[in-house]
Amino acid sequence: MNNDIKQIVKDKYGEIARAGGMGCCGTGGTCDPLAGGSFAEGYGQLEGYVPEADLGLGCGLPTQDALIRPGDTVLDLGSGAGNDVFVARALVGPAGTVIGVDMVPDMVAKAKQNAAKLGAGNVAFHLGDIEQLPLPDDHVDVVISNCVLNLVPDKSRAFAEIFRVLKPGGHFSVSDIVLEGELPAAMLEAAVMYVGCVAGALQQQEYLDVIAAAGFVDVEVRRRRRIDLPADLLRQSVPDAAVEEYQRSGAGVWSLSVFGRRPAVAPDGI
Fold first, then answer.
1. pLDDT, tens only, 85-134
2. Residues 1-8: contacts with CB within 8 Å, 24+ apart?
3. Taking a C-beta distance cutoff of 8 angstroms, is the pair 201, 253 a contact?
4. How far from the centroid of its chain's Cα atoms is residue 213's Cα?
5. Is the four-CA dihedral 153, 38, 235, 247 of positive or negative sign?
6. How confident is the model at residue 1 (pLDDT cuts 50, 70, 90)?
7. Averaged confidence pLDDT in the chain
8. Pairwise CA distance, residues 254 & 242, whole Å
9. Residues 232-256: pLDDT tens digits?
10. pTM for the structure as a whole
11. How far is residue 104's CA from residue 83's CA, in Å, rounded to a whole number?
12. Are the CB atoms for 196 and 165 separated by under 8 Å?
């Protein structure tokens, strides 16, 4: 099942990359019936922003709370066309490095094209899975990600990999989608909802427990924003009865920005 989900995500995001349009978690797109502008946040005010790299696929601004410093090595997970990579590049300066990893070949190709247009010599994009990152241990100062980890089937493995590639004392800042309360089964089972950044989400406390189990400390929710799911768009994907059940349930979908650190010194026994 996990392989099926990953293939669905690859196919859908490859389609978005080839179209060069906004979609899924973003604004104004056609890749997903839920693409109504509820998820993405505006990047226009951020230094380093490259409009051609913004496909509207995020649900937050992870660099806001990432404490990125000049000279840092930063890793962006699910880097897409390079949107957050180029913003991070402005923060690390010429002495720093930003690495993007994405599992969709078309996204990696598009990101490399955008980097070439910028003449950005201190960025690199790699094809790879978040659950098995193509990077050595203790390699980066900061990890960022924007509405991607919720699409990863094995989140425990994903955060274990984040822990592995961070230097001791390094930290992550990720924006992601979580749930509060139980969404109707029909919504969770719809593949299009999964790619739309809803059905892959964990309950908020479960998400935070996964992070803690990976060994991170100082874990903190820095930002939290409720996502409204318009009933008319929901009805394009799921039965009316499921929409009505969702509206009665009080369940909610939230965008979180979460921060955490890898301990500078390993705990005893590790």
1. 999 999 999 999 999 999 999 999 999 999 999 999 999 999 999 999 99
2. 1/153, 2/153, 2/154, 5/153, 5/191, 5/194, 5/200, 6/103, 6/129, 6/153, 8/191, 8/194, 8/195
3. yes
4. 20
5. positive
6. very low
7. 84
8. 19
9. 767 777 788 877 877 787 778 888 9
10. 0.86
11. 15
12. no
The answer to whether the CB of 55 falls within 8 A of the CB of 26 is yes
Residue 37 to residue 42: CA distance in whole angstroms: 10
- Kindly state the percentage of the chain with pLDDT values over 90: 54
pLDDT per residue as tens digits for the range 251-263: 788 889 999 999 9
Strand partners, 15: none
Measured between alpha carbons, how far is 110 from 98 in angstroms, rounded to an integer? 16
Task: For Cα atoms 176, 177, 182, give the angle at the middle one, nearest 5 degrees.
Answer: 155
CB 252 within 8 Å of CB 180: yes
Q: What's phi and psi for 217, nearest 5 deg?
A: -125, 170
Residues 6 or more apart in contact with residue 100 via CB below 8 angstroms: 75, 76, 79, 80, 82, 85, 108, 111, 123, 124, 125, 126
Give me the pLDDT at residue 13, please. Answer: 79
Give the list of residues 6+ apart from residue 78 with CB closer than 8 angstroms, or none: 101, 102, 103, 130, 145, 146, 147, 148, 149, 151
Q: How far is CA 108 from the centre of its chain?
A: 15
Mind listing the domains of the chain with CATH numbers? 2-261 (3.40.50.150)
Q: Tokens representing 85?
A: 């990579």
